[in-house]
């Protein structure tokens, strides 16, 4: 099978044409080349040689110089003109210099071979000539192939560019469609949220417009505090839905100011942040909003509910929501038993800084209401004997040896404060204690 494949794919043998008017020389050349695998043709004159060339594909011509009617130089000149791809060799004597020059100039011969020749030398000359000829043909073939492939590649690239442009346009149209669809979805989403927020307000009374006012103030506070677009949107949605946990409240409970609630009514009221969170839990996109609603009734000093967390442990969005909601509730009579004018509501907010409200949020609120410049609340250094329950560590509490005793954002209680004081007394050291400022409570 291998031999058959080799025979089928092997190149055809080279064809050599020998031209000489002496039959014995032609016979000698035939005997010399045939064992080398060449196909050998012979002609006894230049005219006969030209006739063979018209009928056969010849790779190499060996011509004698001295022949009647048409000498070798003229014959090879005809070969060069009509079959320039055929290699040309000249047989001549040592003394025939003028003939050699004529053949070189007119026939552009590859080599000349002197008589009498050496068999080994002439075989090497012919072999090298044919190998070079084969390399030149392969080079030409590859150049043609490369040019054709380059043209095909150029055409393919042009086709690909057109296809890419078409596909790009399709993707651009798809993107525009998706963006428009997303825009509509977002618009519908906000509309749905507003519908949900209005459900509690449909109960009547003084609740109409409450959620929208709280949402607007909460959004402005979030922007003032430098929250990014996503966080601001989350605060806005949480504000729209902040009363959703009250959906099951009785009319009496809804109409009773918070400061007058007691007993079972107070217990039901305190569950509304948890109910709000539970209502939103099935919605993956509103998990962040749900966490803000859970923490909306927490106090900055840790006295809120349902978890009793304090300071920075309360999500910032919930701290914003607490202030925005209370500000409007004060004015509609939902927080205390009388309606409060806006200036008085602001003052109540200011008076509760550090207790119910985050000082930074109050500063942003003051900037919005009164045009004051926001000043970032800084932490304060203090000593152990001045610590009070509800204070929050602003930095890690570290011993002189570098051992961390309490982490930042830890809310202090009486037990922890006593432990800190005992540590100082026992080790005769003074700790560097940093806390968030809390205003001194009124007597």
TrEMBL record:
> What superkingdom does the record give?
Bacteria
List each copy of the HD domain by range: 207-330
Q: Which PROSITE patterns match?
A: HD, HD_GYP, RESPONSE_REGULATORY
Q: What is the protein name for this chain? A: Response regulator
Domain HD-GYP stretches: 185-381
Question: PANTHER family from the xrefs?
Answer: CYCLIC DI-GMP PHOSPHODIESTERASE TM_0186-RELATED, TWO-COMPONENT RESPONSE REGULATOR-RELATED
Task: Return the Pfam families for the record.
Answer: HD_5, Response_reg
Response regulatory domain: which residues? 15-130
**4-aspartylphosphate found at:** 64
Q: Could you list the residue ranges forming a coiled coil in this record?
A: 125-170
Q: Which UniProt keywords apply?
A: Coiled coil, Phosphoprotein
Upper classification of the organism? Bacteria, Pseudomonadati, Pseudomonadota, Betaproteobacteria, Burkholderiales
């Amino acid at each position: 099978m291998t031999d058959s494949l080799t025979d089928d794919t092997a190149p055809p043998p080279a064809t050599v044409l020998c031209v000489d008017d002496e039959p014995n020389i032609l016979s000698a050349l035939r005997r010399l080349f045939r064992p080398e695998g060449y196909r050998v043709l012979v002609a006894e004159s230049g005219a006969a040689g030209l006739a063979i060339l018209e009928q056969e594909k010849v790779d190499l011509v060996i011509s004698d110089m001295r022949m009647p009617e048409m000498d070798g130089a003229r014959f090879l000149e005809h070969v060069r003109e009509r079959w320039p791809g055929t290699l040309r060799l000249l047989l001549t004597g040592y003394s025939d210099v003028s003939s050699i020059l004529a053949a070189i100039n007119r026939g552009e011969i590859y080599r000349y071979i002197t008589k009498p020749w050496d068999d080994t030398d002439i075989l090497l000359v012919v072999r090298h000539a044919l190998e070079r000829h084969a390399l030149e043909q392969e080079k030409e073939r590859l150049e043609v192939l490369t040019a054709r492939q380059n043209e095909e590649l150029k055409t393919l690239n042009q086709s690909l560019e057109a296809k890419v442009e078409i596909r790009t346009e399709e993707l651009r149209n798809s993107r525009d469609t998706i963006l428009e669809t997303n825009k509509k979805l977002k618009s519908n989403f906000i509309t749905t949220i507003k519908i949900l927020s209005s459900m509690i307000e449909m109960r009547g009374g003084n609740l109409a417009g409450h959620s929208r006012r709280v949402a607007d103030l909460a959004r402005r506070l979030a922007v003032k505090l430098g929250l990014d677009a996503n966080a601001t949107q989350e605060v806005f949605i949480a504000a729209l839905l902040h009363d959703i946990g009250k959906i099951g409240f009785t009319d009496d409970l809804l109409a009773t100011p918070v400061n007058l609630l007691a007993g079972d009514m107070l217990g039901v009221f305190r569950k509304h942040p948890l109910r709000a969170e539970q209502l939103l839990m099935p919605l993956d996109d509103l998990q962040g909003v749900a966490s803000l609603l859970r923490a909306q009734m927490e106090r900055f000093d840790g006295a809120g509910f349902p978890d009793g967390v304090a300071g920075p442990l309360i999500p910032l969005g919930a701290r914003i929501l607490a202030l925005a909601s209370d500000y409007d509730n004060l004015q509609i009579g939902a927080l205390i038993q009388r309606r409060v004018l806006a200036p008085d509501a602001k003052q109540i907010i200011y008076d509760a800084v550090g207790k119910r409200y985050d000082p930074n949020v109050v500063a942003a609120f003051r900037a919005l209401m009164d045009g004051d410049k926001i000043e970032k609340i800084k932490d304060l250094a203090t000593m152990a004997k001045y610590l009070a329950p509800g204070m929050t560590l602003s930095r890690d509490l570290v011993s002189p040896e570098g051992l961390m005793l309490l982490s930042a954002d830890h809310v202090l209680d009486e037990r922890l404060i006593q432990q800190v004081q005992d540590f100082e007394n026992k080790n005769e050291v003074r700790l560097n204690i940093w806390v968030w400022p809390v205003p001194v409570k009124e007597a």
